[in-house]
Amino acid sequence: VQLQASGGGLVPVGGSLRLSCAASGRIYNNYKIGWFRQAPGKEREFVAAVTWSGGRASYADFVEGRFAISRDSAKNTVSLQLNSLEPEDTAIYYCAATQSGAFTYSRYYREWGQGTQVTVSS
Q: Are 94 and 115 a contacting pair, CB within 8 Å?
């Protein structure tokens, strides 16, 4: 599967963005599509993931209800709605695909999109 992330941008504190991950190629039913982020000088961290079959979502603790992940299997896209953005959310956001059950760990993801920059201005 090939992935392409889009939708990043510059927003003020408290603003919203909707990121999109377009998938192409062979998508297996046991895929999970995850979003990770990496801020300058920090390690890449898990944000959210959704199962391709069934659309079951999981989130990192820091999300605290501010983000929502969803998938549209007809359009082969996974979206990440970012609300109530804070300066600490500034990072490059990546989408990735895995068939592993350990979907909160980036090392288990084999396919990665190119990333999209999210900047929250204070």
A: yes
How far from the centroid of its chain's Cα atoms is residue 26's Cα? 19
Residue pair 42/30 in contact by the 8 Å Cβ criterion: no
CA distance 18 to 21: 10
CA–CA separation, 37 vs 16, rounded Å? 16
CA-closest candidate to residue 113, choices 83, 59, 68, 77: 77
Confidence of residue 18 (pLDDT cuts 50, 70, 90): very high
Answer whether 91's CB lies under 8 Å from 38's CB.
yes
Dump pLDDT digits (tens) for 42-89.
999 999 999 999 889 999 999 989 999 999 989 999 999 999 999 999
